[in-house]
Amino acid sequence: LQSLPSGNISLLCDVLVKEVSELTGYDRVMAYKFHEDEHGEVVAEFRRSDLEPYLGLHYPATDIPQASRFLFLKNKVRMICDCSAPPVKVIQDKRLAQPLSLCGSTLRAPHGCHAQYMANMGSIASLVMSMTINGDDDDTGSDPQQKARKLWGLVVCHHTSPRFVPFPLRYACEFLLQVFGIQLNKEVELAAQAKEKHILRTQTLLCDMLLRDAPIGIFTQAPNVMDLVKCEGAALFYRNQFWLLKMAPTEAQIRNIVTWLQECHDSTTGLSTDSLTEAGYPGAADLGDAVCGMAVIKITSKDYIFWFRSHTAKEIKWGGAKHDSGYKNDEDRKMHPRSSFKAF
């Protein structure tokens, strides 16, 4: 891992899943990354050739609840030898005031819902390991010496028959994940630094254009405003004229957005939202999937610069059917894990 060239997190994950597969012998080993909105993506996979690939599929944040993520920060390795095995009741001293917590125990039985989730996937045994990186400085608490860690993702191993991995092998995997975490942390920090440098360089160039010309220059020259923000389209409404870049609403639709901004957000200098629908824009449905999120800054009381993002569901490949069949009503659907993991 340490000998790999820098600047390639994807290659790092590919090597990791292959090494874990060789160490443990599981049928499928995946690197599962959490995005900013907490949904997950399979970014690397090493599997038995006859198994269906999950590489590149995205799954909603609800597939791995917050309680489970909290436990993965506390316990870096979680093994289930046989999800179909009946759980064995723990008999404890009646004088104990609270039930015995098995959160930190390898012997803890899987939740019934998770066991069903694995069965639906065609998996009997699993091994899950945490991939952590340094958290934000705000999360360090009162002790500045102790850097908080945050969950970047998981290494998820599945097997189609019962499988037990002895402690020495699990310990070796945990050590491998520690080395991976150090390398990953370096890559994440380098990527953040490179992104910041790019933004600052672009900002300088755009500011220079603004000083030499009207805002029109940052739309008609290179670099332009789209190099500053990750987006699918941008627009300038200046002196009652329009300049549109790539995937942007029509002039009439932008004029309607301007009217809404002046009526509902006139006291602010800008607005940023992941969803115009959630922001309360009445014409959001007319924009379709091409435009969902928007950032806007006010140049003057009548002039605006817009950045637009399309709907995420349109851009990425989701895993699992939109509507699982076999459930009579919504209540049944809520009480069961997904029954499909295929792309739709």
Description of the structure:
This protein folds into two domains: 9-192, GAF domain (Beta-Lactamase, 2-Layer Sandwich), CATH 3.30.450.40; 224-310, PHY domain (Beta-Lactamase). The protein is elongated and about 75 Å long. α1 packs antiparallel against α4. Helices cover 31% and strands 20% of the residues. It is α+β, with helices and mostly antiparallel strands and 344 residues long. Strands 3-2-1-6-5-4 form a six-stranded antiparallel sheet. A five-stranded antiparallel sheet has the order 8-7-11-10-9, covered by helices on one side. The protein contains eight helices and eleven strands.
Ends distance = 34 Å
- The total count of strands amounts to 11
CATH fold-level assignment of the largest domain = Beta-Lactamase
Strand order in the sheet with the most strands? 3-2-1-6-5-4
Largest sheet report: 6 strands, antiparallel
Class per helix and strand makeup: alpha+beta
The H-level CATH homologous superfamily of the largest domain, spelled out, is GAF domain
Number of helices: 8
Overall 3D form: elongated
User: What is the subunit organization of this protein?
Assistant: single chain
| CATH top-level class of the largest domain | Alpha Beta
Percent strand:
15-25%
Mean pLDDT: 84
- What is the count of structural domains? 2
SSE order, one letter for each helix or strand: HEEEHEHEEHHEEHEEEHH
**Name of the CATH architecture of the largest domain:** 2-Layer Sandwich
Protein name: Phytochrome C
Organism: Pandanus polyglossus
GO molecular function, one term: photoreceptor activity
Family: Belongs to the phytochrome family.
